[in-house]
Amino acid sequence: MEPTEREIENVRRATKRLKAAPVDWEAVTSGGHTPARRWIVTMDDGRTAFAKVATDELTASWLRDEHVVYQHLKGAPFMPGYVGYHDDGEQPVLALEDLSAAAWPPPWTEDRVEAVLATIRSIADTTPPVGLPRADDDHLGIRFGWEEIAHDPAPFLALGLCSQTWLEQALPALREAAQAAPLAGNTLLHFDVRSDNVCFRDEGSAVLVDWNWTSLGDPWIDVAGWLPSLAAEGGPAPEEVAPDVPPNLVAAVASYFCAHAGRPAIPTAPRVRAVQLSQARTALPWAARVLGLPPLA
Predict the structure, then answer these.
(1) Is the dihedral of CA 52, 139, 173, 225 positive or negative?
(2) Could you report how far apart the first and last alpha carbons of the chain are, in Å?
(3) Mean pLDDT computed over 220-248
(4) Which domains does the chain have, with CATH numbers?
(5) Is the pLDDT confidence value at 218 over 70?
(6) What's the Cα-to-Cα distance from 149 to each of 13, 145, 181, 258, 275, rounded to whole Å?
(7) Would you put residue 27 in left (φ > 0), alpha (ψ -120 to 50) or beta?
(8) Which of 236, 231, 273 is nearest to 256 (CA)?
(9) Phi and psi, residue 258, nearest 5°
(10) Is the dihedral of CA 115, 247, 107, 263 positive or negative?
(11) DSSP 256
């Protein structure tokens, strides 16, 4: 894959504060589940930067939202260093610190788990930008995945996570719990904490990437959203890490992953459903345990 002339020019503008010109381009093909194009760009003075380039209206919107967050939180230790931004009206570019040499999990250790929890606490203690969406508006549909499954259970059942009999018995409790999930709050949330959005600096601190869903809400949301991916990658069970996560919120997290994993594949982001299924496999048993439901069968 080679950069287009337009990408080269837009990345050059986004990195102009480095006072160096991009001369080498390495496509980033691991991680990332959107059709945005990603590059590690080497400058003519040897420095490197990570550049994310929009490819459609949706990724352009996400990059613009992410840029607002970086402008407000610039210099925060829990996010990549900000390099620059350029928006030509169609394909904005966000240039950030190159974290390709950081440690990306798995494996998970006790120190790494604690580092992520510390970072989530640090985010929660940070003054948020003005105008962020509110989690309680449920713009991502976290509370109502079980409604979707109740309306048409076949796509979910095809995932093989449980039997039809188990679902029929558990669905009323799952729906009721998820609809009552505590999402409201004024705490800054990353709102997409999962293992592939986390890396670790040399001294051990955790950094979160992909800030396009940043919202305001209950501080438990970031913890609850992260724990299924942690367990899926060989980390401890959610209850071992955070036994006090509200059970209703656990039911809502499971509803999101279970409903989305059963949806048709996204042509421009073909890996998304597999990631959601991996998290559904750990989120659903967690919800069953905290709600006192029978083990999955």
Answers:
(1) positive
(2) 45
(3) 97
(4) 5-96 (3.30.200.20), 110-290 (3.90.1200)
(5) yes
(6) 46, 6, 17, 8, 19
(7) beta
(8) 273
(9) -70, -40
(10) negative
(11) H
Bond from prior residue into 35 cis (ω within 30 degrees of 0): no
- Angle, helices 272-290 vs 247-261, to 10°: value is 150
Indicate the burial class of 158 (C-beta count within 10 angstroms; 0-12, 13-18, 19 or more). Answer: exposed
State which amino acid sits at residue 60.
Answer: A
User: Residue 292 corresponds to which tokens in the numbers above?
Assistant: 């006192």
Structure tokens at 245: 């996560």
What is the C-alpha to C-alpha distance for residues 285 and 297, in angstroms, rounded to an integer? Answer: 10
Express each pLDDT in 2-20 by its tens digit.
999 999 999 999 999 999 9
Residues shown for the chain:
297
Distance CA 204, CA 274 (A): 29
Structural contact between residues 229 and 79, judged by C-beta atoms closer than 8 angstroms: no
Alpha-helical regions (H) of the chain: 5-14, 57-73, 110-124, 145-151, 154-157, 164-179, 220-232, 238-241, 247-261, 272-290
Tokens of 220: 């438990």
Q: Which two tokens stand for residue 173?
A: 């409790």
Q: What digits encode the pLDDT tens for the residues 146-186?
A: 999 999 999 999 999 999 999 999 999 999 999 999 999 99
* DSSP secondary structure of 83-136: EEEE--SSS-EEEE---TTSB---S--HHHHHHHHHHHHHHHTSPPPTT--BGG
Which residues does residue 268 pair with via DSSP β-bridges, in sequence order?
Answer: none
Q: Which amino acid is at 34?
A: T
Distance CA(204)–CA(96), nearest Å, equals 20
d(CA 142, CA 148): 11
Question: Which token pair is 202?
Answer: 């040399």
